[in-house]
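Problem: given the chain below (390 residues), write out its structure.
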Amino acid sequence: MPSTDRRGSSSPFHSFGRSFWSGRREQVHSIEGNNEPNADELELESFYKQVTDRFHELSVVGADEMLSIEWMKKLLDAFVCCQEEFRAILLKNKALLSKAPLDRVVADFFERSLKALDIFNATRDGIEKIRLWQKHLEIVLCALGSSQRVIGGGQIRRARKALMDLALAMLDEKDSGSVFSHRNRSFGRHNTSKDNHHRPPGHSRSLSWSVSRSWSAAKQLQSIANNLLPPRANDIAATNGLIVPFFAMSSILMFVLWTLVAAIPCQDRGMNVNFSIPRQFSWGAPLLVLHERIMEESKKRERRNSNGLLKEIHQIDQYARQITDLVDSPQFPLPEEQKIEVEQGITELASVFEAIKNGLDPLERQLREVFRKIMNMRSEGLDLLGRGSE
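Solution.
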């Protein structure tokens, strides 16, 4: 792990041995004897700079901000900005998309885009699970909130019940992460609605379409990562460097999907997916730094069996355990010292509750928007391929 302080101006990128500006031009087709980049090269360089700047900003945040709801929103913003610039490159070079060796790369990219949509669906299902936990937190806050002048037996019992329900809901999510689980997958609720007979068996209700109980986020990530290989020098030369942004955008897509699965409860979560970018591609440096930081976070003792690495999930688990220990007392009302500790714990829990309450809806809207943008770009790209073959 880099020893530099991530909050300061010293950047982990220095360990890569060379700056973005000195290395990025190696990623496009060089023109022998001409030191002046042409318009196409400048456009590619602009795209690589966008990738570097956006993900560098995400990589240098402090540990208190990393993997928070707000950070995840910034991650999706970075993805959208990079995809928009990548889309502009495709539109400008649409005549080349159906020609070898780029045609196969283009087809693989749009196949990965299609597989990515399931990850977004599963992630949005995970947000619904967090909303259920939020309801249990609200009961705890109402029972033990600061408006209670005296915390008596009734409030304690109500809070205990909500904390127990929360613990069971979070434990159930860990258990049901296995592809071999046969628990109900409709956001934790029993399928008692009248329209259940209209749903296909073995599927969970989703906000767009469902994933089956046998679906695995880990296997889907692995499928997306398959054949994601750096372009060869002769292919870079044959495409005037155009093959490199496809590798870059595929790597960005892969990283964003991997981070979503790592952070938010997903069916059969898994992080052991190979992610590698050769260091000659300077735009990959911040992605590698981020991957390293997230892997380090996942290896921490208190995070190994977590439902997700999202900062707010960790805080829910941490503060709920503390309050559970405090209210597990036979004395009513609580002694003054213990009452102060409960009030402090409730204040911390309330801050997490507000972060979830204010952050989940915007995060879900972003996921919906990114879903649509990926789908629209895939349709547009396939249309361009069809015209190119005419």
